[in-house]
């Protein structure tokens, strides 16, 4: 796979920019038109995808990577099912994740599944993996069977339009799967890190395989309880969502919201122009200050109204310097205006004549800065939240990271308060009729949930901060109606809950079919192996394992309804005997634990008695020594 990736997308040489050879950069489109475009096969604008890529590239550069000089294998990448069971692992031999590892795992998966099966893939940067597959033709033979998404707890690193398309809570088909199984798997094998770091290659592979086998056995036994917990939590979320829902209307409004917010939005397509406009406005403000200062100096000279301490030569020198700086500023402003596009010049003209628009632009810039700071904070906390290992050095690093992040929180909160103050100012301007027709006030940020970065938080949406609704007489309900917004969230939650329930029902049926098939195979094998006691023993052990699974699964999944009550495989007598055996084993285990506790207490008691006897012996010896000393002194 590495050779295929290199042939289709060669790694840029040192110092060379990969984007230089991309299809967009090699086209004849200017940068603004490129940002307004969609790449073939993608539903998210190019500018948004670039923003997601930059966010994770910056985070990856700050992440500590294993050295390829000292380690032949630098890490693992895993393909895990939604039940957190490992399907395949690959050894990483590079410093950091490479895309061909993920492509290799997916290629392996499709070699072992039916051709009619569709697969949902949740990956931290699923949007970039989808982008590469569409652009370079990776996995082209199965690409129409893959639905890409991003993992729930890493969605904060993605732009809002990207989350609308790729977030599993907003994307059809994923149910309530969160895509964070790898994180839970890394946590379960973290104890192997110290030993595997110094192990030989094959010893490390054997250790990891053994640990995975043990984890698989444990998770298989608990599969029924896992499904039961999923069903209960889904049922609870479903009831909460149904209370707020008027389905048909919200579904149409959600469709309109996705269409509108995944366009090449104005604030994205003219991001460069907006930055230049902000620079021009800042220069104009500085120029106005210099003009006022020059007028003041000239008035002093004309009227002779300056203090005795002031020197006329100094005032004249200050005046000339101010005029030179003003001329330089005016030249810079003129040059920057010349470089602006037609739309940029119109925007500048509007901003120059409207205080509300200038204030709104400042609020948007402040919110974007706040979002970047919050993302950066989340990436910094990522290593702490994963808690891969608990060595002393890591504990020190974790404490240092927490302290470092804590120091930045007041600055982030200050930005949020400044933004909320600007929102209040904009609201007052709208009330005073100083805003364009159709302008709406942006939503302030709740300080209590500032650091959560949940997918439905207002921090992601720039409602009221762009000119999309200026001069529009009717604000769309998905944008301006709070009840409709809550209804849309409930609709999406309900859809995902319905998908989750359908999947759990299908998994319940598959579980019973698998058990019945395994039971028939084992029973038939026992009948055909009567002459081989060794094989019979192994088959009977397998039979016991299946019975134990039945006993664990059956009561747990009873609440998950299926149309026909499918049998498990073993008959009622075999299941009853297995229940009785498991009950006795659990009682015996408890008795053994109680006996062990008593033994531990007896040993502690004996140890205490020995210590007491030692203390008594020491006291007697001291008394004898004192008596001998007294007798010796008396004889003298």
UniProtKB/TrEMBL annotation:
> Any keyword Protein transport?
no
Polar residues: compositionally biased ranges: 24-38
Give residue spans, biased composition: Basic and acidic residues: 13-23
Keyword Coiled coil annotated: yes
UniProt feature coiled coil, ranges? 305-339
Which superkingdom is the protein from? Eukaryota
Q: List UniProt keywords, sorted A-Z.
A: Coiled coil
Q: Which InterPro entries match?
A: KDZ
Q: Where is this region: Disordered?
A: 1-38
Protein name as it appears in the record: CxC1-like cysteine cluster associated with KDZ transposases domain-containing protein
Question: Taxonomic lineage of this organism?
Answer: Eukaryota, Fungi, Dikarya, Basidiomycota, Agaricomycotina
């Amino acid at each position: 796979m590495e050779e295929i990736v290199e042939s289709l997308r060669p790694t840029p040489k040192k110092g060379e920019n990969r984007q230089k050879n991309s299809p967009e950069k090699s086209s004849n489109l200017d940068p603004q038109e490129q940002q307004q475009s969609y790449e073939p096969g993608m539903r998210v604008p190019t500018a948004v995808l670039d923003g997601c890529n930059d966010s994770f590239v910056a985070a990856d550069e700050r992440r500590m990577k294993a050295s390829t000089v000292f380690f032949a294998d630098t890490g693992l990448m895993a393909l895990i099912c939604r039940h957190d069971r490992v399907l395949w692992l690959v050894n990483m031999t590079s410093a950091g994740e490479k895309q061909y590892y993920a492509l290799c795992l997916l290629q392996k998966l499709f070699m072992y599944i039916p051709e009619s099966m569709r697969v949902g893939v949740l990956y931290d940067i699923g949007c970039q993996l989808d982008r590469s597959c569409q652009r370079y033709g990776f996995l082209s033979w199965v690409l129409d069977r893959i639905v890409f998404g991003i993992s729930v707890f890493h969605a904060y690193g993605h732009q809002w339009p990207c989350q609308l398309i790729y977030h599993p809570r907003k994307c059809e088909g994923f149910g309530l799967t969160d895509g964070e199984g790898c994180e839970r798997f890394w946590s379960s094998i973290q104890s192997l890190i110290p030993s595997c770091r110094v192990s030989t290659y094959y010893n490390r592979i054997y250790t990891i395989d053994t640990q995975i086998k043990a984890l698989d056995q444990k998770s298989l036994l608990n599969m029924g309880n896992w499904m039961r917990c999923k069903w209960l939590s889904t049922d609870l979320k479903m009831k909460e969502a149904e209370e707020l829902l008027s389905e048909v209307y919200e579904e149409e409004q959600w469709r309109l919201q996705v269409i509108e917010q995944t366009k090449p939005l104005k604030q994205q397509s003219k991001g460069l122009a907006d930055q230049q406009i902000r620079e021009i406005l800042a220069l104009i403000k500085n120029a106005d200050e210099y003009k006022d200062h020059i007028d003041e100096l000239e008035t002093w000279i004309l009227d002779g109204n300056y203090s005795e301490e002031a020197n006329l030569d100094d005032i004249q020198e200050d005046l000339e310097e101010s005029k030179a700086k003003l001329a330089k500023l005016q030249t810079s402003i003129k040059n920057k205006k010349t470089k602006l596009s037609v739309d940029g010049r119109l925007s500048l003209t509007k901003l120059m004549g409207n205080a509300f628009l200038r204030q709104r632009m400042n609020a948007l810039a402040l919110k974007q800065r706040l979002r970047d700071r919050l993302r950066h904070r989340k990436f910094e906390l990522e290593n702490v939240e994963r808690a891969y290992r608990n060595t002393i050095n890591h504990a020190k690093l974790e404490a240092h990271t927490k302290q470092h992040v804590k120091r930045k929180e007041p600055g982030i909160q200050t930005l949020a308060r400044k933004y909320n103050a600007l929102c209040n100012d904009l609201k007052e301007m709208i009330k005073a009729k100083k805003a364009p027709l159709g302008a709406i006030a942006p939503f302030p940020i709740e300080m209590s949930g500032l650091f959560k970065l949940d997918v439905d938080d207002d921090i992601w949406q720039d409602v009221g901060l762009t000119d999309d609704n200026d001069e529009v007489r009717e604000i769309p309900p998905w944008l301006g109606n709070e009840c409709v917004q809550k209804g849309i969230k409930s609709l999406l939650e309900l859809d995902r809950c319905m998908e989750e329930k359908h999947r759990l029902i299908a998994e319940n049926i598959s579980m019973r079919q698998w058990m019945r098939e395994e039971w028939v195979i084992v029973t038939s094998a026992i009948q055909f192996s009567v002459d081989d006691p060794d094989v019979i023993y192994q088959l009977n052990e397998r039979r016991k394992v299946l019975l134990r699974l039945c006993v664990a699964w059956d009561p747990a999944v009873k609440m998950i309804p299926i149309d026909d009550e499918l049998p498990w495989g073993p008959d009622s007598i075999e299941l009853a005997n297995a229940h009785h055996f498991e009950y006795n084993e659990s009682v015996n285990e408890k008795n053994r634990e109680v006996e062990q506790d008593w033994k531990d207490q007896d040993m502690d008691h004996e140890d205490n008695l020995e210590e007491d006897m030692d203390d008594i012996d020491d006291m007697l010896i001291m008394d004898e020594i004192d008596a001998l000393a007294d007798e010796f002194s008396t004889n003298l």
